[in-house]
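thread: overnight batch results

M.L. [08:02]
morning all. the overnight job finished for the chain we discussed friday. pasting input first so we're all looking at the same thing
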Amino acid sequence: MQSPTMTSIGELQDECEAFLSEHYSLRPTVSRSFVWGEGSDQIVLFESPDPEAQQAEVTAVRGWRRLLFDAGLGWVVGPVDLGGRGLTRGHQQALDAACRRYTVPGNSMLTISIGMIAPTIMRHGSESLQRRIVPALQRGDLIACQLFSEPGAGSDLASLSTSARRDGDGWRITGQKVWTSGAHFSDIGEIICRTGEGERHSNLTAFLVDMGAPGVVVRPLKQMTGSAAFNEVFLDDVWVPDEDRLGDVGQGWSVALTTLANERSAIGGDGFGGSGLLNVDRYIAMVRMFGRSSDAVVRQQLVDLWIGLRVAKYTRRRASAGRASGSPPGPEASIEKLALSNNVLRISGLLSTVLGARLIADTGEWGTYAWREVVLGVPGYKIAGGTDEILKNLIGERVLGLPKEPRPVR
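M.L. [08:03]
and the structure it wrote out:
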């Protein structure tokens, strides 16, 4: 393996191009201009794919990550002693740019594993846990999910009731989690449990739980969109060895905050990738198609959306610059996520104004009824990654320096 100081970004690009061209084909050149009525009009916030198709995708993604990792390209910013290259964020960005030019399966199914759980383990896990789990996550040998929210503790995560009690050299976990993305194809899950009756925020502990262990039951959670993109997970006396604990006993809140910061950064920073949801050209074409170009209300909604998307883009760039220097996600991750959920709400408002009844009755017209899942999915998106209210509190307290809200007396 080359020394990090001997590998320039240009050299890494050449190395990546050689690897990609050997294993994958170039993506066909597609015009970036949007044309109304061409291609599929389906856009969803929370996709619920066919189980067989999804399993095939999981297999393809695992194979892609193994090839990439074994070629020395799977974790170029990681420590050398853990299988990384010790290179910079700039190297990673160059590698990502090269990969986008080829028909690789991509990493979207591993956003939680690589973008949220792996960095949390690197910050809070023991050295042995880092060595055992993180390279496996980066290589795709393991896929992870996040077991945080509960039926009685969604926004108020610190009030969760899932418990973990000592049992010899391990713990017994019992409880229920909801809104768990990817639980049905994950190998492990990061879980926050109550391990004492002490002071709030000091009575929680984080663990990694085997999703295939006895007592773990995963069930799809159907949403009002009609899809089942998430899961509820039941844990009945599930045994976890103490060596799979993240951080000290009672320090689970700190672990949770690290993961949540990474989650908000991933959601707000990545947005919706190439789905087209944030493509203003779509909405301009829609407004023209349905003869609303001169409608003052519609024009104002369209301008508000354009401004919101542009401001969010600049915010992402500033946050990306900080992450490129190696800084962990901070309060700006909450700003990114809040900006994105606000823009999704603006999109929903514009769609409702322009399409009206076409959203609730399928007329067969291209680009109309297909938007119903987006409109129905907006409330869920304003919850995922932290509710808007929680994010506003974080921004107010940690960015603006406002006093904390007094807790209600129960």
